[in-house]
Amino acid sequence: MKRGCDLLILIFGALEDAKDQKIATFGSSYKSHRAKRQPIGHNRAIPKRVCIMLIDEELTLKKLEVFLAFMRTGNLARAAAELQTSNVSVHRAIHSLESALRCPLFKHEGRNLTPLESAYVLEERAQKLIQDVVETVRLTREAAGFSAERFKLGSLYSLTVKTVPQLIMGLKIRRSELNIDLILGSNFDLLYKLKNMEVDAILVSLDESVNDPDCEQISLFSDDIFLATPADSKFAQRTEVDLAEVRDETFITLTQGFATHQDGNRVFKQAGFEPKVAMQVNDIFTLLSMVSSGVGYALLPGRIAAVYENRVKLIPLQEKYRLQQHIGVVFLKAKERDPNLLALLAECRMYANRQA
Questions:
Q1: Could you tell me which CATH class the domain 61-143 is placed in?
Q2: Alpha carbon distances (Å) from 235 to 242, 246, 262
């Protein structure tokens, strides 16, 4: 017997030495990983061995909720009514809970269950456990952008004149508790933010730049491209304009990445010339201000007509140059069941129907 015990001791000792060598070999790569991203509790000493109590699979949150309902009501029938189930189901859940815990919770007196001290201890702890689980689920979903209290909406600058205010008003009616952040940018910038989950949905021009297999789109409306001129321009009273007539004029454009910049390039290419670009700006309102001041002309969508309407005129292009922007909402397929996003999409569909 003694020789057998000595042999076991030697075997376990060898296993421990092998494990220590494995840990030492793994240590350098593990340290570099930890340097990049420290895990939870990284500042605590990690014990060499951790004793883990295996929780019985019969111990479930649902049974704890049934138990807590019984403790609140003190009666099988009332607990069953609260949970919309039967007396038998409540009794079975409590009995199963006792089996999973491997200790009694109640003293059985006929059909009555009298709580033991163990039941009161479990009640106190289970209440906190259920609250923690509910909060954990909420925080996890919020971190993933699902049903968060804050909704981040990306949009083109030009859509803030009319479209964005109407959508936000409708969304607030549907979800009054929701806080909405508005992030403005170009098609390129907004799609990047969407893919990186920095925004929950984007309102953009539905061109090839936002075609992505991970995303879905809903169309809102279509918008024509016009020649924007100062109110005192020689073209201001025209019913339409041939772009060949403005070949020698100075133009102002948006920077690359904006849908209107790309559309302008297409129109100029179709007209057979490259415009003289005096300056490029990062938002459409600065561009309008430059046009109204007589700095140059621009190609702009009709949705901004109400801005500087007395100082900037939008002249339709001749049929051969006409181009439309298709405006819509883009969102990630992975988030299509998020309640906040569903509310926005419902509002977008209503908006699209009004524009039809």
A1: mainly alpha
A2: 10, 9, 24
